[in-house]
Every structure is written in structure tokens, then in C-alpha cells.
């Protein structure tokens, strides 16, 4: 729940059409922290701990994006989205030496359409 709230707060603050990419690092995390605390009242997380957690999530989400893009580009006739997710999970595991799987799907659902994570298909066009 905290990770999803952090992703929502990050998305809302960093993708604000007025000031999103113009904020200084400290000010940005101060605003993300305020937004996060509205979502999770009573949280003891600080700006610094949220920033540290986001660094980990961002890395994991980036690896998942790459694995999912690779699976989408490797689409074969007759396969479905389940096969695509299984393939992506295998490639994600390979990036970690096969020791872990992606388990931040709720976070992915929050960020998957923002510029940083959106997947632009590069495979052959579908008719």
C-alpha cells in the first residue's frame, strides 16, 4: 500500500503540467512527502526515506518496463497477454540472476502511462 501511494504521489507531483520538471530535488520531495502523508495519514516516513524507497522502486519498475517491452516485441502469433507476462517475468528474473520476480504490479499500473515508463511498441505493425 505504501509503495502504491508513493507512486501515486510521485506521479501527481512530478508530472504536474505547471511545475513538474522545474522543481529542485529538495522541494520536489517535500511536495511528494506532503502528498504521500495525505494518502497515508500518520506515516512516519520522511522525505529522505521516501526518496530512498523511490530509488529502489524506480529501478525495479525500469527493469520491468524493459522486460515487458522485450516480451511485447517478441510476440508470436497465437500467444496472449498471459504468455507475454510470463515471458516478461522470465526476462526480469534473468536481470537479477534468476533469483527474483517482479512483484510491484500495482505500482506498475499507476506509472505505466507516464513518459518515463510508457512502452512504445517496436515490433511489426498489426493488421
From TrEMBL:
This is Zinc ion-binding protein.
Amino acid at each position: 500500500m505504501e509503495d502504491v501511494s508513493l507512486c501515486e504521489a510521485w506521479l501527481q507531483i512530478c508530472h504536474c503540467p505547471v511545475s513538474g520538471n522545474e522543481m529542485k530535488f529538495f522541494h520536489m520531495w517535500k511536495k511528494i512527502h506532503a502528498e504521500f502523508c495525505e494518502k497515508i495519514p500518520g506515516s512516519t516516513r520522511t522525505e529522505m526515506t521516501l526518496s530512498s524507497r523511490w530509488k529502489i522502486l524506480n529501478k525495479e519498475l525500469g527493469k520491468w518496463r524493459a522486460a515487458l517491452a522485450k516480451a511485447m516485441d517478441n510476440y508470436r502469433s497465437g500467444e496472449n497477454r498471459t504468455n507475454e507476462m510470463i515471458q516478461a517475468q522470465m526476462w526480469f528474473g534473468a536481470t537479477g540472476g534468476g533469483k527474483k520476480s517482479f512483484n510491484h504490479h500495482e505500482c506498475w499500473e499507476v506509472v505505466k502511462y507516464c513518459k518515463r515508463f510508457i512502452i512504445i511498441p517496436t515490433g511489426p505493425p498489426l493488421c
